[in-house]
Amino acid sequence: MPDTIEPTQQQLMRAYRIYLKMMRYPHLTEAMREIFRSVLLEKASVDTTQIRKDAEKAVKKEKIEPTEENLREYMDAAVDLTLVNHFDDEQIDQYINLARKEDRLQNLIKVVNTEGVTSLRIKRALREFCEIPEGTTFVPPSEAEGVRVALIHHFISNQLPFMGIAKHHITIRDIDEIVQRSYWSPRYPGRIGGKAAGLVLAYRIILPRLTKRDPELEKVLAIPESYYFNSGIFSDFMDYNGLHEFHTHKYRDREDMEETYRKIPTIMESATFPPDTVDTFREFLHEVGEHPLILRSSSLLEDNVGHAFSGKYDSVFMANHGTPEERLQEFIRGLKRVLMSTFAPAPIIYRRKRELLDFDERMSVLAQKVVGRRFGDYFFPFAAGVAFSFNAYTWTSRINQDDGLIRLVFGMGTRAVDRVGDDYPRMIPVSHPLLRPEVDAAQIQKYSQKTVDVFNMKTGTMEPVPFLDLMRQIDHPDLFYAVSENQEGNLAAPIFKGRAMDLNHCCLTFHNFLTQTPFMGAMKKILDKLEGAYGRPVDVEFAWDHGKLYLLQCRTLSMQTALEPVSLPEDIPRNRILFTNNMGVTNGLIQDIEYVVYVDPKTYNRITRYEEKAEIGHVVGEINRLLAEKRYALFGPGRWGSNDINLGVRVGYEDINNTLILGEIAFEADGSAPEVSYGTHFFNDLVEANIVPIAIYPGQQGTFIDENFLLETANQLPSALPDHARHASVVHLIHVPVSKNGQLLHIHQDGKNQTGMGFFG
Question: Do 682 and 647 contact (CB within 8 A), yes or no?
């Protein structure tokens, strides 16, 4: 062969190599050339009819019989040569692979739509398709969409609202990646559940696989390393241990349900997983290595459109450190705890309220590596929290509600999504990140985060540590972004890194984090993209560490009430007003309230015994059940549902789900204020149950509450619940029409102008 190959020879060599590639798949050669002819016409303006005419001339010239077969040989060779003259080898490989994709897609369509097909068979067909390089040429969307729907239904979720959105964003290859990280029982099919599904979908909405991505988001956004233990493992576990009676547990009355649930931990302790499933757990732990894990509930209904199940099921942190057997036993204990929460009263009552009780709910588990770094025995990220695409907490008209709200904490995000003790997250309106409701340095320090949740690797438990104590123990490299220092009455963020600061005069403000990192810009884009795709407000849990924004969870939230304008009536006589409020007002219009339940904050705060305060929560729960078919409003001290029983009445969702409003009252003498719930699991419960949260600060200008009416009106608690008559000095049950000559209570809350009123009429 000569040193210099003539162009025509080079084309022949390239065409020959392409032919060899094609002949690896001889049954697809005609499909490949059909694609070649199509792209030649579309992209190179080559008229393939001319190729046929040239072939006819060549056959005639060589005196070969012009049969269709002979013409086809000439035409195929001409197409191949023309193709190499217009496209490079990489492009041609893409067209060859497109034919392979379409062939494997047809097989996948057949398999996934076969009645009674096994997950293993679908997995193999899916893998065969995805082993073909992805490239930049794709099968027609009309063909791919149907396969996506079938695969989503089989492996991810059978919820129609989710599938209707997911089919436009989650690709066949995304599903293959999920399947490759999924663990299941060989005896039962299953899905990865709602929480896992919501996370996968959110990530693909923000960073699409097949269309152009935002380069700035691509730099900063990530999801934790995740693995999926699908609902088939739950089904197998239940059957293997003969726990069939629990399938009817949800139909018991509440008292019976609670009594049975108290026995479940003992039953779970002795229950075991099948040996092959335990081997699967061992394989997983070997693969993931020694890194802290969180086992997140991911039930089939969870985080679905219209019902998020916020905080209803358990999630479990595990140190995942020690010998393989120690790690295995810790994992199994955590898994059992998540599975057990399927039968807890709160989610069952939640389902009953939404007419979801008859759905055969199964629990899947999302296992993720915990985001963060280790500092001695402690493990935690720089920051975490929850972001909400609609901001119901607008204390000034300057804030744009549609831009959203962020609830940010230093350390683990548990302090952001739960109502904790005497502590405060940073509340950030996305439209004005540096705007605060506090007006001076003293107030900012008072209402700043004081305690950090960290995961203690030695004890394997979540531990609250005072922020200043923590900073004295460790040298955190990102402290510059977190704190401001009080300098003679003025709070100022550090100007440059490495400057020595007096921790005694510092507090968490996140000023530099909000102004000198891409966090705010990224979060604004993320919330916009997610709400746009879902067509309704969303709630996103996140963590930030090492310059990366980790998406942990995404769910929708119904906010119709908060979006509707409300006006306050004028010229209502003072003797007909129950209260007025002007801080933290969310939109709401609640009319014709027949009952008022009032837990007197002053009397509650004088109770010294823990058990007696806990009993008040039980009384509230009993009243909630008693008034299930009535229209009632609930008022009480400080923080409803707080982990600190001294700051508010200890209640769960099942104790307040029938009320129309939840009022939090803070008298100046209390020394405590109603912490804004927005973005917490507790707030999600209120919104989804159409319960309007109200904060009342008696004594502040423009705020009033008629204590005389609440304390001196006839209390029906002793007659309605005789067993709790001894609590009548704390809990007041008022029948409004009896005390107000047939009038009812009406509540108007105008979020836009931050004014609210409750009045009789």
Answer: no
Residue 242's region, left for phi above 0, alpha for psi from -120 to 50, else beta, is left
| Mean pLDDT of the region 282-295 | 96
Helices (H), 188-342: 194-206, 215-220, 231-240, 254-270, 275-288, 324-340
Q: Which DSSP category does 307 fall into? A: B
Number of H helices, E strands in the chain: 30, 28
- CA–CA dist 25, 40 (Å, integer): 21
Query: What CATH number has the domain spanning 181-369?
Result: 3.30.1490.20
Strand partners, 748: 589, 757
* CA separation for the pair 97, 24 (Å, rounded): 12
What is the Cα–Cα distance from 228 to 338, expressed in whole angstroms?
A: 13
Strand blocks (E) in 361-482: 363-369, 373-375, 378-380, 383-388, 405-410, 426-429, 451-456, 461-466
**pLDDT per position as a tens digit, 294-329:** 999 998 877 666 666 667 788 999 999 999 999 999
3-state secondary structure of 183: strand
Each residue's pLDDT tens digit, 332-361: 999 999 999 988 888 888 788 778 888 878
Which DSSP helix (H) or strand (E) runs through 540?
A: strand 538-545
Asked if the domains at 181-369 and 373-556 fall in one CATH topology, the answer is: no
Helix (H) or strand (E) holding 352: helix 345-353
Q: What pTM did the predictor assign?
A: 0.82
Tokens of 480: 């510059």
Query: Would you list the domain boundaries of the chain?
Result: 7-87, 181-369, 373-556, 561-760
Whether the CB-CB separation of 357 and 351 falls below 8 Å is answered with yes
pLDDT in tens, 85-139: 889 999 999 999 999 999 999 999 999 999 989 999 999 999 999 999 998 888 8
Q: pLDDT confidence of 648, banded at 50, 70, 90?
A: confident
| 524-547 average pLDDT score | 94
Q: Are 207 and 559 in contact (CB under 8 A)?
A: no
Q: In what order do the strands lie in the sheet with 182-183?
A: 182-183, 226-229, 363-369, 293-299, 316-318
C-alpha–C-alpha distance, residues 179 and 108, integer Å: 15
Determine the length of the chain.
761
Give the Cα separation of 146 and 578 in Å (integer).
Answer: 57
CATH class of residue range 373-556: alpha beta
CA dihedral sign, ordered 102, 104, 105, 106: positive
Q: pLDDT tens-digit profile of 685-703?
A: 676 667 888 888 887 788 8
Q: How far is CA 306 from CA 9, 330, 534, 556, 655, in A?
A: 66, 34, 11, 7, 21
